[in-house]
Amino acid sequence: MATIDLSPLYRSSIGFDRMARLLDSAMRADSNAAGGYPPYNIEVIGENRYAITLAVAGFAEDELSLEIENGILKIQGRKQEDSEERQYLHKGIGFRSFERKFNLADHVEVKGAKMENGLLTVGLEKIIPEAMKPRKIEIGTSLNLLEENGK
Hints:
Elements: H1 7-10, H2 18-32, E1 40-46, E2 49-55, E3 64-69, E4 72-77, E5 98-103, E6 108-116, E7 119-126, H3 144-148
Antiparallel strand pairs: 1-2, 2-7, 3-4, 4-5, 6-7
Keywords: Stress response
Family: Belongs to the small heat shock protein (HSP20) family.
Domain SHSP: 31-142
């Protein structure tokens, strides 16, 4: 596995040290992925709105859990033991347990989740704080701050 050196970015950027951890984690996750189970989509559904959809056919809502910790959304499926004794001629539907993790960018919040037709959809929205939104600064004739300091 190759490593990426981001040190040139740190010379002119402040607060992006989390980026190296995210890239490293993503590269490890791709190499350790458990066969891509369950399959999923990540979709842009509007400005600053996203959806993650996982194919979880065969799982009941109470067998699924969603958790967010330190900017990581973790979705788990734990199949309960089948109390019925069954005899299969062919068993091709996999009901194995799974865990999927998604790194969320700063200010991305989970807005809800729904289960429909064997698909679990998680709604996400990036909520930009007022302090980070662009604002117009009027140009005046003087700055009180500079005048107070004798400039």
